Amino acid sequence: MADQEEIFEKIQEVLEDALGVDDDEVTPEATLVGDLGAESIDFLDIVFRLEKAFELKIPRAELFPEDLMSADAGYVEDGKINAEGIAAMRTKLPHADIDKFAKDPKVENVQNLYTVDMLCKFIGSKLDG
Questions:
Q1: Of 77, 40, 43, 87, nearest in space to 63 by CA
Q2: DSSP string, 18-72
Q3: CA-to-CA distance for 79 and 87, rounded, in angstroms?
């Protein structure tokens, strides 16, 4: 079983290097985009660095699913994620706080699902297999 403190420390290092932030900015509650300034291009780098740091493979779009927000998915109505979309998020993002998101499911709030804590839970589950 992976130690959560060790996972957090490695993720903290990964995010410091990838995003050029200070260690005190990388808290469990910090959002990757809003708090740490990550942009879409940074997500590829973060995945690569996580794979290297934890010696594991993260399949494309497993950590950051791309199809949830596509127009073809049918999950967006009037700028909000509908109930079907929220159900899909629970499946595709099991480590994110979907309950909190569901209280205000605006599309622009999706980025707030990606927190340092969510990364820690995701990596922990991958390591525990």
A1: 43
A2: HH---GGG--TT-BTTTTT---HHHHHHHHHHHHHHHT----TTTSS-SGGGSGG
A3: 17
Evaluate if pTM is beyond 0.85: yes
DSSP classification of residue 2: -
3-state helix, strand, coil in the chain (%, to 5): 60, 5, 35
Closest CA to 13 of 26, 29, 32: 26
- Best CA proximity match to 36, nearest among 94, 112, 122: 112
Q: Do residues 43 and 65 make contact, with C-beta atoms less than 8 angstroms apart?
A: no
Average pLDDT for residues 15-44, to the nearest whole number?
95
